[in-house]
Design brief:
Blueprint (H helix, E strand, L loop, with lengths): L3 H15 L2 E2 H12 L6 H13 L2 E6 L2 E6 L2
Helix pairs in contact: 1-3, 2-3
Length: about 70
Amino acid sequence: PESEAAWARALTELVRAEGPLLLAVAVERLARAAGFGRVTAKAQEHVRGLCARAALRVRDERGLAVLWPSE
């Protein structure tokens, strides 16, 4: 996806289909789908920031961020 809105939609679709989902897993799947070879901490933080735009809930469980659908 090229725009922030497109990334947010892709993230929403992924979490709705597979959630709850670890943030790290969601980032890896989005990166792979977009053709990126590696995931950086900056990319992970960017995706975490998209969660509000994507209307997803983020819960920290045992030191891991878990994404939940808002519905």
